[in-house]
Amino acid sequence: MSPTASVTSAVTLIPLRWWHLESVLDMEAELFGAEAWSSEMFWSELANPDTFYLLATDAGGAAVGYAGLAVTGPESFIQTVGVTRAVQGTGLGRRLMEALLAEAVRRGATSCWLEVRTDNATAQQLYRSLGFQDRGVRRGYYQPSGADALIMELDLAGGAR
Question: Which residue is catalytic, options 53, 66, 115, 142?
Fold first, then answer.
């Protein structure tokens, strides 16, 4: 078994709960710096019945990733995806995305939208490999950096999932 396969096979996806937020906030700070979500933002997301959040834990129970989805009627939105640097490139981001997309379909969504930094080619490549298409750019979307966001959409009704 390759090292990558052993990492991803040893990871468990569980529902994200409030008691996981300290670990998630640590990952947020590591990954997004000044643009990290606050604890209040996560609390608000977890309190919303239209959202679905997952936590990825390694074989030792340590948090190594997380992702969130919101579904409103036929539309769904990837809210956030984060994978610790130590396990980036192992397929965990894809696994989290596939779980979110399956949940979106389960909840009746026919499309899924997301924003990704225009300078994050790795994430864009992942999203395109899942079938997402470019739909536009939001100028200055990420704050405080003012970085632009690429808007992407996936047609979930087309049978791709």
Answer: 115
